[in-house]
Amino acid sequence: MDDNEILLLLQEEKRLTSMKDPEPQVIAEAIAAFALNNRKRERDLNLPLCNSIMFPCLTMVGTTPVFYKITITAALSRAVQTGSYPETETRVFCYITSLPRRNSEGMRPLPNRLKILRCLEAFKIFLGN
Question: Which strands make up the sheet holding 92-96, listed edge to edge?
């Protein structure tokens, strides 16, 4: 959080053997963060509502990250709140790191660690200031 708004989302699945897909959960968290950020802007800060917010997101399965860029719009948030289909499609951008060694080894091997750290460094541009 930056003072009063959520800027980054992280969804972690600690068990490597889990078959749970963290992607739906991080998308749901982005929609909830959009609603919370706008509620805080309106009620606490007396600022106008945002029409859209782009959230950089990470999911972690063990120590292997997957990077997301999810833009939530007011129309999508309203559709979720009312249980209806949104009029426009929402695109979720995803980058799955291609590691030198097996993904299941995560950051254990040095070549994987170097690749993941490079990806994290590149991902910083989406975090703003």
Answer: 9-13, 52-61, 64-73, 92-96
Tokens 């802007």 — which residue?
Answer: 41
Per-residue HEC secondary structure of 56-107 comes to EEEEEECCEEEEEEEEEEHHHHHHHHHCCCCCCCCCEEEEECCCCCCHHHCC
For residue 110, give Cα distances in angstroms to 14, 22, 65, 67, 99. 20, 25, 15, 20, 11
Three-state DSSP at 7 gives coil
pLDDT tens per residue, range 28-54: 999 999 999 999 999 988 899 999 999
